[in-house]
Amino acid sequence: MTYRHVGVSEDSIDAVILESARAHGLEAAGRYLHLIRTAVEAIGASPSRPGSNPVPRVPGVRSFHLRLARSLVPRELRVKEPRHLVVYRVAPDGVVEILGIVHDRMKLPGAVRRAQRAADR
Questions:
Q1: What is the rounded end-to-end Cα distance, in angstroms, of the chain?
Q2: Burial code of 37-67, b = ≥16 C-beta within 10 A, e = fewer?
Q3: Neighbours of 1 (CB within 10 A)
Q4: CA 97, CA 117: separation in Å to the nearest integer?
Q5: What pLDDT sits at residue 121?
Q6: How many Cα atoms within 13 Å fall on the side-chain side of residue 50?
Q7: Could you give the CA distance from residue 95 to residue 45 in angstroms, rounded to a whole number?
Q8: Residues contacting 12, CB < 8 A, separation 6+
């Protein structure tokens, strides 16, 4: 299976990486970007992978916390405490659509609905 970014997905990832660079430096931001890309590729290969969950009150959309992808990256590139979730859905053509990335403190259904509306425009 493959994936594609839709709506504000790439913008939300860019914003997270920019904030990471500001708060933790360029090297840390690079590791976080690597973790995000690894998680997205893993989701594209297996959308119902262990640890992915349906988003409550948003049918057809799932989330996957980045901490679950830590073991997929080399030890020297691991992020100690990832705080974001990748939100996605499987489109009718079978391709995984990455809707965006949200902080784990956000109210997930609301954040996902906003990302979904942007993707459906």
A1: 24
A2: ebbbebbbeebeeeebeebeebeebbbbbbb
A3: 11
A4: 13
A5: 87
A6: 2
A7: 10
A8: 100, 101, 102, 115
Q: pLDDT at position 96, please?
A: 98
| Whole-number pLDDT of residue 93 | 95
- For the chain, helix, strand, coil in percent to 5 are 50, 20, 30
Question: What parts of the chain have a pLDDT lower than 70?
Answer: none
Q: From CA 69, how far away is CA 66, in angstroms rounded?
A: 5
Distance between CA atoms of residues 72 and 17, nearest Å: 19
The pLDDT of residue 83: 96
State the pLDDT at residue 14.
97
Helical segments of 1-121, H only: 9-24, 26-45, 108-120
Which tens digit of pLDDT belongs to each residue from 42-62? 999 999 999 999 999 999 999
Domains in the chain, please, with CATH? 3-120 (3.30.2310.20)
Task: Identify the residue whose tokens are 């784990």.
Answer: 104
